[in-house]
Amino acid sequence: MTRTSNTTQKKAAQFELRLYVAGQTAKSQAAFNNLQRLCETHLAGQYCIEVIDLLKTPQLAAGDQILAVPTLVRRLPEPIKKIIGDLSNEERVLVGLDVQPVKPLKPAAE
What is the pLDDT of residues 45-87, one digit of tens each? Predict the structure, then answer.
């Protein structure tokens, strides 16, 4: 399963993202949906998502040293960054990707 989602050509993408999953599980689907939503909100037109199903191509896990799924790998811009999980925590994902939110996020409860 390799899906690419982007409103512009891959050459114009500033963020090159790979999402490693293991089949069509609920967690894998949630990770993809959350990632797509975050990208459309905060990176509109500046990203490329490649989804890699490790059940079909397990050899690809070694290249990015994937130990758990789902795992998001930001390949560009460098340095490479990884986020493990379903990507439901928007603030954590944005911090992990070094992306400034389009609109301020809710302040954390003290």
Answer: 899 999 999 999 999 999 899 999 999 999 999 999 999 999 9
- In order of 7, 60, 99, the CA distances from 21 in angstroms are 23, 11, 23
Contacts of 16 (CB under 8 A, 6+ apart): 10, 47, 48, 50, 74, 75, 76
**Environment class of residue 25 by beta-carbon count within 10 Å: exposed (0-12), middle (13-18) or buried (19+)?**
middle
Beta bridge partners of 17: 49, 74
Q: Quote the pTM value.
A: 0.81
Maximum Cα interatomic distance, the chain, rounded to a whole number of Å? 44
Q: Which among 55, 46, 38 is positioned nearest to 12, based on CA atoms?
A: 46
Answer whether 110's CB lies under 8 Å from 57's CB. no
- Does 1 have pLDDT greater than 60? no
